[in-house]
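Before the break, one more example. Copy the sequence into your notebook; we will annotate it together after we see the structure.
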Amino acid sequence: MPAWARIAVIALALLPAAAAAQMAELVSKTTFRVCADPSNDPMSSQDGTGFENKIADLLAARLEKPVEYTWFPMSTGFVRRTLRANECDVIIGFAQGHEMVQNTNHYMTSAYTIVLPKDSPLADVTTISDPRLKGKVLGIIAGSPPGTHMARQGLMAKARPYQLFVDRRYASPASDMLVDLEAGEIDAAILWGPISGPLVKREHPDLKVVPLIHETDPPRLFYRITMGVRLGEDQWKRQLNSLLRRNQGEIDQILTEAGVPLLNNMGTGLKEGTQ
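Here is what the structure looks like once it is written out:
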């Protein structure tokens, strides 16, 4: 084999390792760089009070690094203009299986919920298919998965939709929905549990949050939440997976104290020890 061919073969053999090393170098060695929405209460907030902020603080402490945020609204272009632009190294909350990022192992499983007044005749409803919801006005974030279940049950005609994509600095559809529920303008609210749970615990003591874990038809209403890192950063992903595994108890405590309904991995019931 000519010398130039041998060099080419060696170069090709080393390319994956070199590429991996180059990718690994993108992760900061001095700070725990987080991409987050500054106004995504109760998950992330620029004042550091969101439960994702507290999880970031925990992991940064274990890494013995300070947290450094890149703030950007959670909207079109979020991943492209933060994580992929190398402005940060991790997104704290990302649904499992999203193709725009590489997912870590999941650190929580939660579900969509139905929120009801504690004194409502509907207070013991646990499914969207409950016949007592017929003719009732349900609030729902437009385009969210429970809408399929509502449509199947004939509940969309009277539903009140709330916007999915808004600038959270100026609008909060979930908060508006819960205020409308307390005012009697809607009969129930359908919301993602990591949003409804903390908001109800903090601001609406007369409401109750019920995870929708008993629906049998698709789409599923529970999701496993991971952290998102850049594609190809396998070493960083493994490091985060180790951190998540070793600190899962404290992460659960942060989420439970915030009011997030935590489910077992299969989404069939509440996670043991977090009820």
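The first helix runs from residue 3 to 24. The longest strand covers residues 108-117. Try to locate both features in your own notes.
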